[in-house]
Structure formats: structure tokens, C-alpha cells
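Appendix B, example 12.
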Amino acid sequence: MKNLEKTKVFNINIERIDELVTPKQIRDEIPANDSIIEHVYKSREAVKKIINGEDNRLLAIIGPCSIHDQELAYHYAEKIQSLREKVQEKMEIVMRVYFEKPRTSTGWKGLINDPHLNGSFHVEEGLRTARRILKTINMMGVPCATEMLDPLVPQYIADFITWTAIGARTTESQTHREMASGLSMPVGFKNATNGDVTVAINAIKSSISPHSFLGLHQDDGKICIFHTNGNPSCHVVLRGGNGGPNYSEEHIKKYESELEKSDIKTRMIIDCNHANSGKDPYKQPPILEEITRQKNNGNKSVVGFMIEGNIYGGNQDIPTNLSELKYGISVTDNCLDWENTEAAVLKMFNELK
């Protein structure tokens, strides 16, 4: 713990400051070997080709709303790997491995922030655990997707990530647009919670451009200035909004026009949960059916979809006694169970032309 200087006007509301290990220290402890680096590189290139229209397969981002249990993550990854092999001719599946959860007000902020799920906030342990999970899943041959929320976190885990989301609550944030401009993987910007897609379009305009911003140096942890080239692999993620779903053919045509006017590639991913499903995860399979219909009718702009799923369906509150936590059930958003997830994806695979 660092000594905390306080005056009448400085650090008034800061209780304490804990020193954090540098990104390099954690990356040295849990390194990415050559085979993992090659796997992540090839996975990113595959996703980029889909986004750029060079590969007609669909990008499928599937998995838990959030990761709270290491063994559960590996269990789900085994199922994803098996499904990847079955559908690889028409889909590139990337597993959702989300460790940071933006909250509307309060609640569990994710495994990195609170790995013990009890408000103890052992962030350093959370970073190590997250990196260890990502390494293991990549070693299983499964590419990983996540949401980058804290702008310092990428220095700790980004080398294990194939695809990144910027959430609906942070798409408008200049800090996150700057961060995205320097990330090494494709980035999807969700439309705003009110359904406004213009916010995501503006975010893409910003993030494909160069930026300079403050960040954390991976070697010594010093604050430094990052100068970026801009990230050319940014795209829109449609998640619906306060007005309802936004994945219909009429919506897609409207957004195609808006993207063209902004001189941005007309590439979109449809998030089948959240406002598009009315937060009912069991309404996700019919959305896959609609995506299939549009693709079979010649749609080129929808290049992927997201499913929130877990071993078992629904969700649960985090109990005070963690021994009462039920295995395989989300502790954040409601999720679709694996049986229905697999069935919906295989049905889509069989029906896609």
C-alpha cells in the first residue's frame, strides 16, 4: 500500500492506494508461447477476413455473459471447441470470455475487479486469474472474445484476445475510442442503450483514426503517452435499444445507408440477446433464424452474431454463502442453456446456403 498524501483539497475521498504489479510481470508469469501467439494471430486474421468480406462465413461470438468460475469456463470451452469443428465450413466461432461488467448502478463488476465474488476486490489476483483462463482456453484451440472496459487492462491480457467489444454504455466514451484505435484485434462497437446507431458510427470514425492518449507502459508501469495508427477493423454491433429490436431487414437496410454515407464499411454483427431479445435469452434462436433468412436472400452486410449462453439457462444472484452458488448458471445476465445454443447453431449451419 502506498502512502497517501491528503490535504484539504487533495485525495479527500480516497481511502487508500494499493500498488499494482506491472503488465510485464504478469505476462512473464503467465506467458504466451509461440503456439498460442500463432493461434491468436490466425484467429484474428480469420475474423478480419470475415469483417472485410473476404470470407463468406459468419463470425459467431458465443458464451457466458461473464466468467466467474475457472472450471466452468473450461467446461464451456470444451463444448465450444466441439461445435467449432462441426460448423467451421460456414462459421468461425469465438468464445465470449468476459471479465469486466459495466453496471447501470451497482453490482458485481466482474472477475478481474472482484475474483472472489465477495467485495474483497483483489484486482491483482483477478488479472492473474483472467490471464490464466485466457491462456488455457487458447491452448484448447478456442479463440477468445472479451469486452474491454478499463483502459489499463489491455496491457495485461490483450495478447490472448481475438475480438473485442466496446459496450453500449462506453461506445460514446472518448477514452474507449482512443483505446480501440490502438488495440491489435478487431473491435465491435455496440449501439447505444437507447438504440442510437449513430453513436457507434461516430465511434468507428474516431477509432479508425490516429490518437494520442495517456496509458500504462507494460514494462515498468509508468504513465506514458500512446500514439496510435488507428484500428481499421472496427464495426457495428446491433443490440437493440429502448425502442425494441434492431435486426430486421428494414433496420439493416437503414444502417447500411447510414454507414455508406459515413464512408464506413457496411459490416454489422447482431447481438441476439439484450434489447434484441427483450432480455429473454430463449428468444435468441428465432433471431438466428431471421439472420439465416436474410443471408440466404443475399444480405452481405450482416457478418456475424452473438449469443449469450451458459451450461444451464437463466441466471442467479451471488449468494452470501458462495457454497450455495449453482454450477453452470450465470451470475449476471440471463443466458441460454448449452443444449438450446448448440441446437440453434447447428440448425443455422444446416439451413445456410
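Residues 23-351 form a domain with the TIM Barrel fold (CATH 3.20.20.70). The chain has one domain: 23-351.
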